[in-house]
From TrEMBL, chains A, B:
Catalytic activity: 7-phospho-2-dehydro-3-deoxy-D-arabino-heptonate = 3-dehydroquinate + phosphate
Organism superkingdom: Bacteria
Name of the protein in question: 3-dehydroquinate synthase
Keywords, alphabetical: Amino-acid biosynthesis, Aromatic amino acid biosynthesis, Cobalt, Cytoplasm, Lyase, Metal-binding, NAD, Nucleotide-binding, Zinc
Keyword ATP-binding found: no
Binding annotation for Zn(2+): E182, H245, H262
Cofactor: Co(2+); Zn(2+); NAD(+)
Any Gene Ontology CC annotation: cytoplasm
Pathway assigned in UniProt: Metabolic intermediate biosynthesis; chorismate biosynthesis; chorismate from D-erythrose 4-phosphate and phosphoenolpyruvate: step 2/7
Subcellular location: Cytoplasm
EC id: 4.2.3.4
Main location group: cytoplasm
Function: Catalyzes the conversion of 3-deoxy-D-arabino-heptulosonate 7-phosphate (DAHP) to dehydroquinate (DHQ).
Length: 362, 362
């Protein structure tokens, strides 16, 4: 097992990464101050892992809530179901909420933990690669609104994150690849050496080689923890973690959070950001191609669904990074060097949107 | 105009108290970082004061949302209406939300500000005495759940509070008295001299003497600001501000947040807490009588609606101060000296509940 720490003063917390962590109560119990625990999971994950977590927590008074699976349930309505469960059991301010599942369960449960009785304790047990390398770390919680993704939320750090790599063995192929998209993101925005490691090890990751997966998770979490420690509330640097996300959110909103996985939309978004960065003359052609090649090697989609440039712009305008009506995008100066900028030639964005609306997958 | 400061380091903010503040843009503009402002108000307050606030903010891009008036609209559903308004206008992360109204509008708008895009700027313009002396100061935001009051919420400090004493001239009689209940609370929990001043000046407050009102608001806000600065997240001392609230919330929940005003329920709750404190031998009889006498002089209700002791206990059990299933109550050792305790003789609580269930107002 490897342990990293997210350094946030009094609110610092560990990320444990390794096999068979779900059966180790000593990793969880130091972070549960009261007696009451509510584990929130979904219909896919609960049958696989709920029993093991419950057994590990047999010293506590454990309740469970099992929600349907899917991004379309990441709503205020699902949060209300969590509040209902907490209140029906009269759970108090010392309650600990545990998210057992992927990014949707983590973001939603974290939001309920942030807002139940003005904030209760929270533990993340991410069971997808995407959640292990990204959403479970850093304290961003939230739900979607019909007009935009993650528009309702709060910052609320977990007290501990348990990334059990064994849970990835049961992960559907498509979700594994979607998680790899976020792994590639860290290489692109701030870690050129890791990008090169990924170029050499992408096959091993797709084959779920345990050592390769553990290394990729560790490097991803280390990068994320460094960024979060430096800029918890996204005044600045943290926004770079959203490479590909503004394009990607537009795709997800357009398709109603159903047909595209988040990581798939981010992959296409990163390809679009790389294209635009090249159009601006910021990213050279070889690096744009290397970016596309790595995404393609990970068997990720590189083209958006049929959408006009106008529709893209409309959906991108509600992005949280927009300021004073001006769109800000994360773009690449080089592999391993991303910037957040509103100061780009708009024609480059139009050329990219036109290019992709012509090549759109049907 | 008097100005107090809530000392919270980087998040410190001023409370301005005095007449005719609504027309002074210079009190607001330093706290509005972007261009976009959403003023949230209700159908009662908006016709009286919205125009003046809009005029003061003519330099900004101002939107308005006017909700129905009443505690029963302090729900997640109303918060959703605020999110809808923000997103329909594509308001960004630099947006400032202004609450123009009483405690319901303040708590609800504050919650929306805490959770829109993980937190935007927030200004309180309280227009009731209760909101000016209590709910607008200290950063507690939230909405009610059918199973309990303020069960969903967050801590989110405003950037400034503007208590314009002129707005109290239009306040209905009952709401003025309900506000005085919270004013009396500060005397009871931590300020014996202020309690004595109130004994001598209660008539002047009921007659809305401007100097008396301004003094009462200032002393109340000073007391509240000191408590919040010492214990922002209610680890300890801040819970004392809830004197009378556990009994009071049970009354409000039982009556569906309709027939009783919050301050009225708190007044009855404080009488009940004083009774129980006397039953425990903590508060002497003369002080219990002085407490009841001051509440009666303020023409506040001293007896709950018909409720059995069992019903009271059931509703009190969901209180946020409960810990590990054990009820904690704010009780009085003396006027000006409150304590939070779970360590009381349960028989005293039963005697108080029995006493009040016999004397209940029909």
């Amino acid at each position: 097992m490897k342990t990293l720490t997210v350094e946030l003063g009094e609110r610092s917390y560990p990320i444990h990464i390794g096999p068979d962590l779900l059966s180790r109560p000593e990793l969880l119990t130091p972070y549960i101050p009261g007696q009451q625990v509510l584990i929130v999971s979904n219909e896919t994950v609960a049958p696989l892992y709920m029993q093991r977590v419950e057994t590990a927590l047999s010293a506590f008074q454990v309740s469970k809530l099992i929600l349907p699976d899917g991004e379309r349930y990441k709503t205020l309505d699902s949060a209300l179901q969590i509040y209902d469960a907490l209140l029906a059991q009269r759970m108090d301010r010392q309650t600990t909420l545990i998210a057992l599942g992927g990014g949707v369960i983590g973001d939603l449960t974290g939001f309920a933990a942030a807002t139940y009785q003005r904030g209760v304790h929270f533990i993340q047990i991410p069971t997808t690669l995407l959640a292990q390398v990204d959403s479970s770390v850093g304290g961003k919680t939230g739900v979607n609104h019909p007009l935009g993704k993650n528009m309702i939320g709060a910052f609320h750090q977990p007290r501990c994150v348990l990334a059990d790599t064994d849970t990835l063995l049961s992960l559907p192929e498509r979700e594994l690849k979607a998680g790899i998209a976020e792994v590639i993101k860290y290489g692109l925005i701030r870690d050129r050496a890791f990008f090169q490691w990924l170029q050499n090890n992408i096959e091993a990751l797709l084959e779920r080689n345990p050592e390769a997966l553990a290394y990729a998770i560790e490097q991803s979490c280390r990068n994320k923890a460094e960024v979060v420690a430096a800029d918890e509330r996204e005044a600045n640097q943290r926004a770079l973690l959203n490479l590909g996300h503004t394009f990607g959110h537009a795709i997800e909103t357009e398709t109603g959070y159903t047909s595209w996985l988040h990581g798939e939309a981010v992959a296409t978004g990163m390809a679009m950001a790389a294209h635009m960065s090249h159009e601006l003359g910021w990213l050279d052609e070889a690096e744009q191609r290397a970016t596309e090649a790595l995404l393609a090697a990970a068997e990720l989609p590189l083209t958006p669904p049929p959408m006009t440039p106008e529709r893209f712009l409309e959906l991108m305008a509600v992005d949280k990074k927009a300021l004073g009506g001006k769109l800000r995008l994360v773009l690449l100066k080089a592999i391993g060097n991303a910037v957040l900028s509103a100061d780009f030639e708009p024609a480059a964005l139009n050329r990219t949107l036109n290019h992709y609306s012509r090549t759109a997958s049907a």
